[in-house]
């Protein structure tokens, strides 16, 4: 593979086996679990182009979802998962990870449905990789 997008998604899925993680969204034929993650918005920038390969900067958004009973809100679960994401040890298959850091972490206002309160936190991680 020439670009690291799908390998980066897989890296997070493999690095956090204690959580149910979906690539972009929960499949339509599956009921969302109470606590789950989605790996969204892999943004890729080529920072260097060498004769032997490329150096890439990747920004990956990991969405943390917590589906609660209506009216129940608690940030503790979201914060624990965000901590696990930030401190996870990932390996991006086919690429050498030069550096990795958290760029942003933001909690959004809860979404209310007829039966649930849904909380979401987004962690954006930046990575620099070479082939």
Briefly say what this structure is.
With 131 residues, this protein is an alpha+beta fold. 18% of the residues lie in helices and 53% in strands.
Task: Please describe what this structure looks like.
With 131 residues, this protein is an alpha+beta fold. Helix content is 18%, strand content 53%. It is built from two helices and five strands, in the order H-E-E-E-H-E-E. The protein has helices at residues 5-15, 76-87; strands at 20-23, 35-50, 53-69, 96-112, 116-130. The protein has a five-stranded mixed beta sheet. A hairpin with a 2-residue loop joins strand 2 and strand 3 (53-69). The longest helix is centred in the middle third of the chain and has 12 residues, at 76-87. The mean pLDDT is 90.
Topology summary:
Elements: H1 5-15, E1 20-23, E2 35-50, E3 53-69, H2 76-87, E4 96-112, E5 116-130
Parallel strand pairs: 1-2
Antiparallel strand pairs: 2-3, 3-5, 4-5
Count of discrete alpha- or pi-helical segments spanning 4 or more residues: 2
Our estimate of the beta-strand percent is over 45%
Major β-sheet annotation: 5 strands, mixed
Total strands: 5
Topology order in helix (H) and strand (E) letters: HEEEHEE
Order of the strands making up the biggest sheet: 1-2-3-5-4
The shape is elongated
Helix coverage percent = 10-25%
Terminal CA distance reads 10 Å
Arithmetic mean of pLDDT: 90
Oligomer: single chain
Question: Mind telling me the C-alpha Rg?
Answer: 16 Å
